[in-house]
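Translate sequence into structure tokens.
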Amino acid sequence: MKWGLRLDRAAVQDLYKLDRRFVPLIWAALNVLAEAPDSNNLQPDEDDPSVYWIVVEGDSVIHFEILDSEHVIRVLRIK
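Result follows.
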């Protein structure tokens, strides 16, 4: 079952700041993450272990939380 994606306001603002050619790569990575978040190469954040990050082609980094109870991936930042 595919997980839902919820983007925080900061993540949406980050998308607008990115070079347009990298946005499709970000969405592709988010869709793969929504299919199976546990099977990806997740790295826990050093400051907050409940936050994970992945690197996307083009040197973008997606920071997110996995909300098991809601079956949602909450995207916090995209840099």
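Note: Residues 19 and 58 are 10 Å apart (CA to CA).
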